[in-house]
Each structure stands twice: as structure tokens, then as C-alpha cells.
Amino acid sequence: MAMLERMDWYDLARTTNWTPKYVQEDELFPPELSGSMGITLEKWESYDEPFKQSYPEYVNIQRQKDAGAYSVKAALERSKLYENADPGWISVLASHYGAIARQEYHASLSEARMARFGKAPGQRNMATLGMMDEIRHGQIQLFFAHEHVSKNRQFDWAHKAMDTNEWAAIAARHMFDDIFACRSATEIALMLTFAFETGFTNMQFLGLAADAAQAGDWTFSSLISSIQTDEARHAQIGGPMIPILIANGKKAEAQKFIDIALWRSWKLFSVLTGPIMDYYTPLKDRKQSFKEFMHEWIVKQFERSLIEVGLERPWYWDQLLDEIDWQHHGMHIGTWFWRSTIWWNSAAGVTPEERAWLEEKYPGWNETFGTVWDVITENVVEGRMEQTYPETLPVICNMCQLPINATPGPAWRARDVPLIHNNRRYHFCSEVCKWVFEQEPSRYEGHQTLVDRFLAGQVQPMDLGGALKYMGLAPGEIGDDAHQYAWADAARAERIKKAG
Ligand code: MN
Ligand code: MN
Fold first, then answer.
1. Cα 480 from chain centroid (whole Å)
2. Tell me, what's the pLDDT at 232?
3. Interval between CA 406 and ligand 2 midpoint (Å)
4. Distance 228 CA to ligand 2 centre (A)
5. Ligand 1 centroid to residue 188 C-alpha, Å
6. What are the boundaries of each domain within the chain?
7. Model pLDDT for residues 241-250, shown as the tens digit of each residue
8. In angstroms, rounded to a whole number, what is the distance separating the alpha carbons of residues 180 and 189?
9. What CATH topology corresponds to 38-75+84-499?
10. What are the tens digits of pLDDT across the range 300-319?
């Protein structure tokens, strides 16, 4: 029997809307789940997905992708790559798996919501494949991480992190719940696929794949490249919705949802991806700095795709550009200093060579963040280890759930942006996090930061031991300095030479 070409039947076959006779349209597509904003079915039908694939084509290609990644893993299993890798690279893997693996599975639930409640048939089609993509991403990243569990319990956090009250897990969950889980099909298309995926997954997955290849970790490189090719497809779900929203008077809404998601993604990536790229990845393997990746993928490419679909740059664009210069350096000092409260080992990344690289990529680094590391290095060299650990809690932002911090030195302008709402005082790291809160206070008002919980007596006993127990960090999982302070050796040698 002769087969039709895909494009001879695709448009007809995916026209799956009909006029409901036994229920109202709003019963079939409840507005709070569809996010239809009063736009009717016929109008959504103009949605034209840029990526058209049939189910048999999808399954065939996915099978090949899986076969490729799993066979690279199998071939390299006995290569001792893990044993020979720089400890900083192991930290990249452990933090990535804990923060990402389960959120991939989480994203499949969001794709499923679009697959059921999206009013545009093309959106439902793409989201059905996207849902299967994300199930695969959850499974493959749990499986690949599992290989390392017998050598390092921190890899168990690929599965465990999102079920704990560890602070970075709380921050990740707060953000992903907001932009993935607790949103309508339209909002998910804008926030998860358009803002998060076309912007930040590109950076995480293409950036890390490049670094992994440099580091010789072909298993990880092929794993995340295999994921990225799926992301590149289903990230396109959001784009075609935007002209429909604009044509129906909903431009302001579309812009707002994207602005919220982009900012929230930025804050989380400043703590997870910034330190990974600029401090943990071995110097010789760094393809580009975090700032360069941000400029390429977010500032240039994302800005272009925003303008292409008829939207504007977010109102906080200047502040974002400013933060790209410094925010992740402060987050890195925070995660290193509070290193016992994370599920990976923080790589300080401040040998003289690494500091020279940081100064080159971020002119002024030595005069600002470098001065903090001077003090830390001095304490390490002098053996005053107790002074390299915190005795207090940071002020945490009630939106991004991350410590409020800024550039040390004369430029210091860390400030708490407070808000009194329903007799409760909230703290924000920035006007933008406060603005996100104000867009829908009822969505966020009940949440307590880790510090709020501590002050409310939920962490017992009220010391580091109690905090580690509350966060679910067991011995063998608690973070430490990745290189056992070897980065201070040069400063120590210098000291001995001077003394001698
Ligand atoms: Mn994914
Ligand atoms: Mn995705």
C-alpha cells in the first residue's frame, strides 16, 4: 500500500478539536488549567507548530538517541574516568544530577498538562512528545548517576535531593513548582518552554556538554547532548502561542509570565551553574566563562527570540545585565562557606592561575571577591579552619530562596528589599524578586524560607547538627572542600618562602 508523505496528512490528522455538545467549552478546558484567557477554541486553532513530527518518526529517533547514549556509557564504564577525574568535575556531576534529574520528570507532568488542556491541537501534539522526552530525561539521568552511588553517596542525591529540605533543593523546588507545576497550559508554554528552555536549558546543556567534552567525560557529554536535542524541539511549543495571545489583546499577560520565569531561572542558575562553570570545571577544560555563556544564550539569543515574537525585553533588563557580572561570584562564596549544607563538594577554584583567569574574565575580581578569598586563604594556611565555617545564618530572599549578597568592597550594595504584606514582613534580594511576589501574592505568601523555619523553631536542635538533620544530609553526603584545600598550597609555599 502506498504511504502518504507526512505533510500530506499531518495538518488534517492533528485537527482534533471539535465543538462539544454535551458540555460547555469551559468544562472541557477549565480556564484555570488551560490558561485560555477567554480566547476561544477556533482562535487557538491557528497555532502552527514549527516542528512537525509523527509518532513513528519520534519513536524511531528517540530509540536511536537512547541507544547512542547508553552505548557510550557501556563502552566507557571500565575506563576509570570517574577515578581519574578532577574532584571539581565530580562536583559538577553531583550538583547537576541532584538539581536536574527529578525536575526533568517533573517537567513531564507539565508537558502532560499541555497535552491535555492546551486548546491548540498542535500544542497538544508537540507536548505529547515533550512529555515522553521529559520522562526519558528523568530516567536516563537517574540511571547514569546511579553508576556512581557505590563510590560516592552524594550521587544518591540525584534521586533524593528534591524530597529533602536542603536549602538549594528548596530554592530549586520553589522555582520549578512556580514555573512548571502550578501553572496552566498557556503559562507552562510561556514560562517553561519559551523562557526556561529556549534560554537556560540551552546554556546548561550546551555549555556543560562543551566542558564535559573538554574534560574527556564523553559519557556525560553524550548524555546531555542527547537530552538537549529533545529540548531544542519541545522548547518551540511556546513561541507560536505568543502571536495568538498578542492578537487577542493578551500581550501584557504573555510578557509578564515570561518576565517572571526568566528572572526566576536567572537567580537559580546564578547559584547552580555560575559556580560550576567558573570555579568547579577544571581551568584547562573551561570553554567559556559563565558570563560569556549568559551573554551568548540569554542576552543575545533570547533577546532576539523575544523581539521576533513581538514582545519586549523584560523591564529589569539592565539589572539582569548588571547581575551577570557579579551575582554568581557571591553565590559561590556562599556555597563554599556553607559547604556542609550542600550535597556536593564545593571546589574553591582560587589557585593563582584560576584567580588570573577570573580577573581576566571579570576585571576587578581580585579587588572585590578576591579580597574575601584572601581572608579565607589566610585562614586555611594558618590552620584556623573554624574561621572558614559560618556561625550565623544568611538573610534569605522570600522569592528566590537564596542568600542576599552582592559585590564585596567599596561597591557593596547588598540590601534587603522589604515588603509588609498581611502583617508579615517579607525580605527580597532585589526589586525584581519583590515584583514577582506582588504579581500574585496569594501564590507565594504562605511559603517559609529555611531561615523562617529555623526562627520558627522547626529546626531542632538549633545548631548545625540540627540543620543537617533537617536538610536530610547524612554522613558521606555532607559537602566539603572538593580538593581538600590543595588550592591553598601555593599561598602556603609563598608564606614559607617569605619566612625562610
Ligand atoms: Mn528535559
Ligand atoms: Mn524540557
1. 22
2. 92
3. 31
4. 8
5. 14
6. 38-75+84-499
7. 999 999 999 9
8. 9
9. Ribonucleotide Reductase, subunit A (1.10.620)
10. 999 999 999 999 999 999 99
